[in-house]
Amino acid sequence: MVHKNGSRKSLWGLMLGLAFLSLLPEKIAAQGGLLSPYSAFGVGSMQPYMNVRNMGMGGIAVGLSGKGDMNPLNPATYRTGVDTLSVRFDIGFNLGMNSLRERRADGSIVRNQSTSGGLSNLEFYFPVCKWYKMAIYLMPATDMHYRTSSFSDAGPYIGMTQLTHEGSGGIAKAGWGHSLGWGPVSVGANLVYEFGTVTESSVLSFLDDTLAAYAGQSEYYTTTKVNGFAADLGVTYRAELKRGHFLTVGGAYTFQSKLYGKRTTMGQGVFSSGTDTAFMPEAARKGTIIYPSTVRAGFSFERDGQYVIGADFSYSFWEQYKEYGKTFDYKNTYAVNVGAELKNNPQAVSTARHFAYRIGAFYQTYCATYGGNNLISFGVSLGVGIPVRKSRSLINIGLQYGRIGFMGKGQIEEDYFRIGVSLSSMETWFVKPKYD
């Protein structure tokens, strides 16, 4: 008898190739995310690594170290999350919806809604030897998609004007991870390549058409292409408290990174008497963007094969941020994540126990103020892992609800809802064929 898994390998190879093609730089770095004024800071709002499983658990990741717990947020998790004979894939998709609300001076409320979706992550983990594991991954790092508008009366000779600011794009990252260790200690590192394009514009419209030939608008656009390298370090310590009960503590550090940019600017005036377009003198100006470092810590308590509960804390040094030599009045930020999972048990008598169940919550601050008040975000999440018949794969579904800002503080209140779906699979690739 011959044990073959070539057809399954071919299928996974095809899926992996198609996923890589669909995650070309232009697509993953600028997916056109949810319309949010809070993505206007820096080069877009940070998209913390969160596959669908982690999302369902409130975003915890740093202090996990069981089987299947590997994630790029802490590269030390690769060693314990992947066994010696198997490779693991995780391919995720997401759909997001949000609602923006702002209270005007007259007490009325203005509303806006948007929807966005696409591929969220692509991960591939494999063993080199018993104590050394590797990872390759591709995912978004930041997302920018905003549009703000204000009106003012510029006087009798100009009349009413409208100033509109817009932004789109973002940064993606491709990583190559390594993890090794002995006994309860694991260490890991990621080498990351970051790339993307951010486009921003300001348009001043003259709304008073009595100005005859001078009615129209002036426009100013900037497009910045960036790329650079970054690195992460991580460590975990997994202690067995008693048989089958484990406590894991972990830490990770993302180094401050320098992104190299090439910025093109263009100004244009559009009037009722014609159009005049002129490129700015510095049409392709090179510069750097200094992105902040982040430190993370987490812990988890796990009963092997039964459940896991944990919490993460992270702190980002946004006071370090610089863009083309310009500093900003940004504040350092922090985030707290808590979560739990009831693991799936394929051998259980009850069909309900064949599924994994997840729950979590999070709280975070933002680097900038809005309306003179600090910005915060909080939310909750749920998730489920559905086993695929006759395989070691799981279809993961995650739901997340969150809120940013408060109308009571003069801010724009944003409620968002995300749905994530992923296929997480473990395939045995390193067993020699047996012949009878």
Structure description:
This protein is mainly β and 436 residues long. It has four helices and 20 strands. The protein has helices at 6-22, 25-28, 52-56, 77-81; strands spanning 45-46, 86-103, 109-129, 132-153, 160-182, 185-206, 216-242, 245-254, 257-271, 274-279, 285-291, 294-303, 307-316, 322-323, 326-327, 333-342, 356-370, 373-387, 394-404, 413-428. A hairpin with a 2-residue loop joins strand 7 (216-242) and strand 8. The longest helix has 17 residues, at 6-22. This is Outer membrane protein. It comes from Candidatus Pullibacteroides excrementavium.
Assign the structural class, choosing from mainly alpha, mainly beta, alpha/beta, alpha+beta, or little secondary structure: mainly beta
Biggest sheet: strands side by side, in what order? 2-3-4-5-6-7-8-12-13-16-17-18-19-20
Distance, first to last CA: 5 Å
Write the H/E string, N to C. Answer: HHEHHEEEEEEEEEEEEEEEEEEE
Name the quaternary structure: single chain
What's the overall average pLDDT, rounded?
84
The shape, in one word, is elongated
Count every beta strand, where a strand is a DSSP E run of 2 or more residues: 20
User: Approximately how much helix is present in the residues?
Assistant: under 10%
Uncertain regions: pLDDT < 50 for 5+ in a row?
1-15, 17-27
Radius of gyration: 25 Å
Q: If helices are DSSP runs of H or I spanning 4 or more residues, what is the number of helices?
A: 4
Note the beta-strand portion: over 45%
Major sheet size, sense and barrel closure: 14 strands, antiparallel, barrel
Question: Features of this protein?
Answer:
436 residues; mainly beta; 4 helices; 61% strand; disordered N terminus; Outer membrane protein
